[in-house]
# Entry
Amino acid sequence: MHPITNIVAATDFSAAAELATRRAALIAKQLSAELHLVHVVSPLDLYLGPELSFNFQLHYEQVQQEAVKAQLDAVAAKLREQFSIPVQVVTRIGRAHIEIASYALSITAGLIVAAAKGENTLLENLLGSTALRLLRVASCPVLIVKNKNAEVETYRQVIAAVNFSKGSARVPTLARTIAPDAHIEALLIFDTNQEAHMYKAGMDEALLQKYRDEALIGAEKRLGAILAEQKDSKNMTSQILAGYPPASICERAKVRQADLIVIGKHDRSNIEDWLLGSVSKGVAYAAKCDVLLMS
# Structure
């Protein structure tokens, strides 16, 4: 994968966003990357109503933009001092996830960092948070910061959830890039849903056992091949478990006391997956630790 030289951190100045920007700054320091702080203003926040003149509306918008710029500059100055990294500040007007993804694409960002929830919690619960909407439109990996520890430290325990889809071998590589000193467990969940369908269809138990055995042997070989492709397999182990993938991945992260899960993003062409819920989306919702979703 290409080196990450630009990182975009979305902020709405909430406490959750502060943790996300600090996480982004720490990663930028580790990778010698430039950090771009982005705040998106909703057009509705700039509209005061039809009874006010057009000139007053323009003046109010200008004042709001200056206030946001001052807040961003203050956050940037603090991060520059604490982490000794270059920081750029950017403001946009529009829909947050669209503007963040568009800006990230324009600077060829290698990573977008966002808090799981920001200031507009009720609206996000109803419509889905900016972070989760970003997963549908971002062209680079998205890190959703869910850890609430006041002290942001380097990742130590990472779950790299793989399957056998195209590009899955890059998941452990991305995990190692973001968490170079962590123990990384390459985790494959053998989905028992297919087996349940076979059982309901009346398949003989002996045939089911044969299916399990053959599937396990194949999974071990393919997982071994993925690990063999890693240039740096230091502190990297593998694990194969059976279960419902989203729940099993989150449970394994809990057992391992992981502070980060890395997983491939959904297939954008699979509309049904997003209507009913994908593995990556399920993990992003349910995980208690940070979740990094690879494009």
